[in-house]
């Protein structure tokens, strides 16, 4: 049985879920993963309807800033993928509530994973087990969560931050028929098929350096770069006027450089006066390089071709794609070309407020790719 992609643009939650249910072709579903626009739907109704329609399968999801499915980049829709037991294998999900308070919630969740799989988290092989996470995209807790995970296991967790169509007002997760905020969902699976976790991005590292010299780390706000107002310093680095700064964000983010081929991207989100607010945490005194984005379509195509050579074939993709990549695709009028990369493969995904893969990053696509 191939992986099933479900899709609806009906604006009524009950009608949309009924359409998804009619598209489902198997009774062996173990996991339903879905991403939904928050624009039209009453979210409590949506979560309840999805649970009723697809239980006893595990049903989890998040709100989005644009949805992705095979051959399409859509808006104001619901996309879902059904995973059979023979594909996803043994799977366990944990809900982490009140993540703003921190504490032992990750350790407690991992104990439950260990009980379920009968193996210590540190002993799990990254070749046999995969981790997935979704998190409230306005929580500012992505770095903390990824750090906690990285300290406790070698299993890489891939995923994204829930979004709300670029409104930055309220992002939500769906779990067991209910809607949650200030929350993260962790999933571990031991698939019956081979898989690959992919981080896809493409940037040229410029020789322009911006060092955050005054930062409000709690709100991810940079007040000064190089001892100058952040907006002015960024404009000077690009040789543009301050009025052009915000329109340059998606093309010219910043990066924490350990490896020039794989910078940890720090993407500006918005201007507030002369301050620049970022999607990711920015540390005061840690130098950042100005980056220039390469063609997203070309870099993604190359990455997918490399994965296909490694796996032999690609049978399904879950794509956590940064909202800024989506904006750049629109700006360059190549959204359709990007979507075409996935037209022959069962694919779902969404545009996120941040991506996770061995850490929290931006302007990246992190993908779960199944053989």
Describe the structure.
There is one protein chain. By secondary structure, the protein is an alpha+beta fold. The chain is 25% helix and 37% strand. It is built from nine helices and 27 strands. The chain has helices at residues 13-23, 43-54, 85-88, 105-117, 142-152, 230-238, 296-311, 323-331, 335-340, and strands at residues 4-8, 29-36, 58-63, 67-69, 72-74, 78-84, 90-97, 130-135, 157-161, 173-175, 178-180, 183-190, 195-200, 203-210, 212-216, 221-225, 228-229, 254-256, 264-266, 268-272, 275-278, 288-293, 316-322, 347-352, 355-357, 360-361, 365-370. Strands 1-6-2-3-10-11 form a six-stranded mixed β-sheet. Strand 18 (254-256) and strand 19 (264-266) form a beta hairpin. The longest helix is centred in the last third of the chain and has 16 residues, at 296-311. The mean pLDDT is 95. InterPro entries: FIST_C, FIST_domain_N. It comes from Aureibacter tunicatorum. Keywords: Coiled coil.
